[in-house]
Amino acid sequence: MKKGRSAISGIGPIFVLWMGLGLMPPADASAAVPTWVNPKEAIGPDLARFQQGKKELTALEKEEIRKYGYTALEVMTYVDSNRETRGKPGFTVYHRCINVTGRGGNIRDSGILQKYRFYYPNYGSRIKQEGIKPGGVEYRYISLITGPAETKGDTSMRTYYLAAPGYRKDSDNWQYSKKTRKVTRNVAANRQDEGMMITTRDDDEGREPWDEDHRILGEDLYRGNPCLVVESVHRAKGYYLAKRVIWVEKTNFLDLHEEQFDHKGHLFKLLEKDWFQVKPSNYWFPRETNSVKLPMGRRTIHQTPIYIVHEGPMKDDYNMQGIRKQVPWVQVDGVLPPVTGSASLPPEPQPRLEFWERMGLKIQMRQ
Predict the structure, then answer these.
(1) Does residue 344 form part of some domain?
(2) Which residues are registered as beta bridge partners of 306?
(3) 167, 135 contact by CB (below 8 A)
(4) How many domains does one find in the chain?
(5) 175: in domain
(6) Which residue among 194, 203, 305, 312 has its CA within the 20 to 30 Å range from the CA of 279?
(7) pLDDT number for residue 32
(8) Position 12 pLDDT exceeds 50
């Protein structure tokens, strides 16, 4: 989708891979690659509205269908199906993470190659638990760090398991260090923790649609894209967010903008995504996820210029032997311009004050 200035826009002709940035794949690639289908058709309203044992619509949902054509749960299910971490063909990504300690603060960036494999056919089978059951392996990825120098060459493998209401098995993470030449098992971080980034695991890996109560607040035009605006409140007691509000592009169901509120009602984190379609499969992927935390202006920016959807079966390296391989399987040097200072970063996301004013609400920022 065409949106505001991106730090990735400076990529030059050094790109020689198929990345959905205007370059064409090999002529015979399309025959082997499954193609994206709009979730409205791939999943459909019956499955999206009635899932995880849900039997009937609420009065609010009936009103949402009358007014908008969808329920909020349905919309957020379609959004969830477009996530990187949801069922699709396997793929390889090159990813750069930029962390900024605050406005005018230190900037640190790191690079990583990741290769994903999914163990169920599609998102519909995930909802219906066909071919996969709660606790079954949902997907794995292998990572190879490409920078900074002190960790370059380290590898890891993470395994994720299918969750269901009342049941969650956390991910397993195994890491191979080039210094010690040993494989160690790491304890997964809490899904609500930020760690060295301002995005949490829930921000990056996704929340299950049934983990939250949703309602459609209204409609808005975000950077030229007609959107449904959805409020989501997590059901877990003591969850770190009071609510989050998501701007969902209405045609393809892409989350373009998100505002997160603490339990004092203050807006404290904003995220925005720049989406594009990878050819020839047409799967949507976020080229850039840009986030800022108030009031200090701490930032995490995920930039992902390379997405390669795998054509047919890939060699199964998702094991202890596979994570010992430290040779990059894709050339990534020079595919992104260097980070030279704050001027090379995209602008901070801004709150949609115009929308809140139309709603008759005054938003308070965390101070």
Answers:
(1) no
(2) 94
(3) yes
(4) 1
(5) yes
(6) 203
(7) 59
(8) no
